[in-house]
Every structure is written in C-alpha cells, then in structure tokens.
Design a protein that fits this description.
This protein is mainly alpha-helical.
C-alpha cells in the first residue's frame, strides 16, 4: 500500500512539474531602455527644481521680513508695539513653514516619483502578463538587484519578449 501511495505521489508530482513553466526577466534593464523613464526623470527633475525654487523664494521673503524687523527695531516706538508682535509672529510662522518644506522635500519628491512610476510599472506588468499568457509561463520571476535569482538558463529569459511588447529593443 505504501508503495502504491508513493508511486501516485511521484506521478502527480511529475505531472505538476511538467505543467509548470518558469521564465525570468530583468525589469530594471527593461526600464533603462524605456523612453517613458527618460520622461519620468525629466518630470521629476523639474518637479524637484520647482519645489526647491519655492523654498528659496520663501527664504528670500523671510530674509526681507527679518531685515524689516531689524530696521524697525531701531525705532523707539517699535519695541513692544503690536506691529513688532505681528512681525515676530510672521517671521516665526515663515521659519516653521520653511523648515517643514525642507523636511518634507525628499518625501514629496519620492511621492511624485511613485506617482510618475506607477503607469510605467503597470505598462511593464501588462507586457509581462501578455508574454506569460502567449508563451504558457506559469511564473515569470524578476532577476534584478536584490532578487534571489542568481542564475537562469538564457532560453527562459523573457526580457527581450517583454521589451518587444513594449516596443523597445534592448542591446546588450
């Protein structure tokens, strides 16, 4: 009985393995050849420049307020006045605003990058799905930096097929 059970398990295991077809690709490599990524990088650089310019403008406005405070502080009537209190409050508010913008800058740029990258990744995924379906792959794994694929037989590399679906050619 054990022998029969073992034989059934062995046959079913071989049957499952025969149905499994695994390919691999390198999404990072594909992305380096996509014109969409160049557009993304230019858009991201422009976004970061605009954000940085905005911070610089706020700093110049703050410098103007500080200069205004210094000039008015020479007047005896300014000390302790509502105008002084209002100006100090405005300077404090602007300093906090600038600090928040500077602290949030990297996160804002990363969020923008994610927003711009999403349609590109969706396009790549659609191409992967199409190649998998057309060629009968059960799995397509990603062979990029940090992946667990250390070696793959070239015949199972579907990177060129995915690139073709995206209308790009990869030259290595």
């Amino acid at each position: 009985m054990k022998g029969l059970l073992f034989a059934i398990l062995l046959i079913s295991s071989a049957f499952v393995q025969a149905q499994t077809k695994v390919g691999f690709t390198n999404v990072e490599l594909i992305m380096t050849y996509m014109p969409d990524v160049d557009v993304l990088n230019k858009s991201l650089d422009e976004y970061a420049r605009r954000k940085s310019d905005g911070i610089t403008r706020k700093k110049l406005q703050l410098a103007g307020l500080i200069q205004q405070y210094e000039e008015k502080s020479k007047l005896a009537s300014f000390s302790g006045s509502k105008e002084e209190t209002d100006l100090v409050t405005e300077i404090t508010v602007q300093e906090k605003l600038i600090k928040a913008k500077e602290e949030n800058f990297p996160l804002d740029v990363q969020d923008k990058k994610s927003q711009l990258l999403s349609p590109i990744l969706n396009k790549i995924q659609a191409a992967i799905d199409a190649v998998a379906e057309e060629n009968g792959y059960t799995y397509i794994l990603n062979q990029t930096s940090g992946s667990n694929i250390l070696y793959g037989v070239k015949q199972y590399d579907v990177t060129d097929k995915i690139a073709a679906k995206l209308g790009i050619e990869i030259s290595e």
